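DATA SHEET
Item: assembly model
Revision: 1
Owner: S.N.
Input lines:
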Amino acid sequence: MADGQSLEEPPKVKKAKGKTPTGPLFTLKKWNAVAMWSWDVECDTCAICRVQVMDACLRCQSDKKQEECIVVWGECNHSFHNCCMQLWIKQNNRCPLCQQEWTVQRFGS
Amino acid sequence: MSHSSTTNGVTTASSSNIQDTPSSSADTQRVQRRKRRRRRESSVTTPPPSKQQKINFPLSSNNHHQHNNHHKTSITTEEVHDMDSRASPNRSVSAPVESNHKISLHGHATRGGGGVANGMKKSGTPKKIVIKNLKARADVQPMEYCKEAWSKLKKAIEAIHSSQPICYSLEELYLAVENSCSHGLAPELYGNLKTECQEHMSVHLPEFNQDNVDEGSYMIIIDRVWVSFCRQMIMIRSIFLYLDRTFAVPHQTLPAIWEMALEQFGDVVSQPKIRDRILRGILAAIHRERCGESADRTLLKSLLRMFVDLQLYQGVFELEFLKETEKLYYNESLRMMRDSEFTLPDYLSHIDKRLSQENDRLIQYLHKTTKKPLILCVEKQLVGEHLQEILDKGFESLLEANRYHELILLYQFFGRFKDGIPLLHIAFGGYIKKSGIAIVSDQERDKQMVQELLELKDKVEKIIQESFQNENKFHQVVRDSFENVINRRQNKPAELVAKYVDTQLRSGNKEWSDEELDRLLDRVMVLFRYIHGKDVFEAFYKKDLAKRLLLGKSASFDAEKSMLLKLKQECGPNFTSKLEGMFKDIELSREMMSSFKQHISTTKRVSGSIDLSVNVLTMGYWPTYTPMEVLLPPEMGFYLDVFKDFYVRKHSGRKLQWQHSLANCVLRVSFDQADKELQVSLFQGLVLLLYNDTDQLTYSYISQATGIIEEELKRTLQSLALNKVSRILLKQPKSFEVNDTDVFTFNRSFKHKLFRIKINQIQMKETQSENIATSERVFQDRQYQVKALVHASDLKKRIESLIERDYIRRNEENTGIYEYIA
């Protein structure tokens, strides 16, 4: 980045119609960037249903509720499909991975 | 007699009831027919043919009974009476008085113009007037009278036979017959008549036995004898009508007069020598006609009707005729099949011609019973015996050349045979497969594969529509054949179909209107339907769709949606849910950008000189891309960080991964001549931005400054330096290969007629690596299913693995059952 920085200096000078050899030749007008988002998780797979957390859990897939299938993080920083976890804590209110008491840290949105 | 003139032995009555065919004495024949039917159920009697003859006989009054087949049994005394009354329209009622003891006057005396009934009826009369005073005159000897009567009749018969005028009135003769019958002398009269006719036949014998005439003349002679026989017998029968009706027809064993005469005639003609001579003549004439010569069809018709009347048609003529026909067409078809000069279209039109000739023959002179066996025989010899040979002779070239007319004929002819159409199906399918495989398996033709397959499909479907009556089974053949063809080669067709759709949906394709495009997509969907490897299609389709969406290259959003809907209908929502997700990502990103712009305008954290827009894609929906790190100028890097903060704050629990290889940008450039805008990839942009500082840079410097990986950077530099129309950088040395020591100089004097210039990425066999990657991904996804399907042992392993991972468990009671664990 250091090189880039030194190179970027000239553009900050006023633009001189491009006729003079020292003027800023190139100006960035428009930039279409692309990013890929994914859940910020330690493990890609939901330990409860064994489906990738980026995909909906099987239940939601078959119910055509892919959109509603969000991810939940516990205080332990482990993450699961929220609907999988809802079922899980009915039996056992502990994180299936670390056995800590399950407390929701945040929901994916 | 006074009101009749005699011409050529035939009485012409002044009555208007004139008919010119022998069948005019309709009711007589009807009786006769009724009797015949009683004896031989199946025999068909048709009235003898009429040619030049013109017989006018007063008894033949019932015009409307000409087509008497419909009411054979409907003769009534009323009709007879009516007829009789008209037979003597102007005659005085007194004529027969002398010979009758009783005179019955019919109640219809007042009917018609002077139509007074003569008292011939003994029954069925509503009124009866008996003249008692005439008893005294009843002593005329019946026997004597009858003798006299017969001598009159005999003279008349002789006159008729010798075509001389009759010297008695027909009325007189008729009465003579009637009176003789009334005196119980009918059997004698019948016997006398029979003997008389028999004798006459023997007069004709020499004519039948002429050896010194040729076939043609012989046939003419026989025909003449037959025609005059018919004419004479009709006349005689009319005179003896009363005898026929009251004696011969009701008689259990004796034939009616007409039939009796026919039997006598038939006895002569049936003699093998005579019969075969006539038969040979007829067959020879037909043969000559089939060979293109002309024939006297009237003569043939007359003789064949004679055969029909004499019961010689089916048993003698038809049998031989069909044999001859079979032989002729057997040889003909064999000759033509072997003759390579004779093409299938020639052959088909030949069959068509032959069939219409034979049909013409049927109408012109053959009897209608021959129709079925004759046509069947011709078709069998010309078509049925050679079904496969005909197809081999050039069916494919007919299809190739779209010879609809010939194909119609072929379809018709083949349709006459049980095996015909199935063979046609097979050959049709064979053609499609052959043509299709040629298209699919030739790698040189990959580019046109889909287009050519679509054209082939249109072509064969047009043929089905035009020539095969749009028969369903043919469409089935098309489907099966295409399915076979398109899956002959693995994956490539699926890939090409996906690419084809991409080409159609991409902007810049102004070839089609919306409706046309939709129709085209429908046609492509049909091809898609045949493809087994739908996952291959999906992978390539998704890759292309991603490009269209990210580069804004989609021609029409509606068309995209419509295509998506088609895929959904075809493969179900699971197939398209991710594709739909891609569209959704683009929409959401657009919304996001407008709120982001609001956000930065309020916080003013970045300068507004760069117009940034970000497409945020959901991982998993989109194809997998390898992220590539680059060194961004600080301003740009900072900008992205601002967006990232904004995004993550908005969506908790998400992380963003930049996909720089997919990004593009617009640069404003000042060349010596003019300012231009360059539309470039982000990588190209990053390289060009380095030239704000200096005009000349080495490869290694650029590489260091941008951090773009070698392969990409080389490609990027090539695109900037090697394209003739968009050469922004000048490369030293001017080779294609890019080396570390190469120097790239900014081309200040760059000229271009456009203001905005798009600099294409070099499609470094874009697909080659990408393509392989896509295919490999498909196979990885597939492998579990494929393996499980192929090997039972693998299936067990898969099950084990599922149990291990607690997806399923074995049923405790029955280990053959697996339970799904929710």
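QC remark: The first strand of chain B starts at residue 5 and ends at 7.
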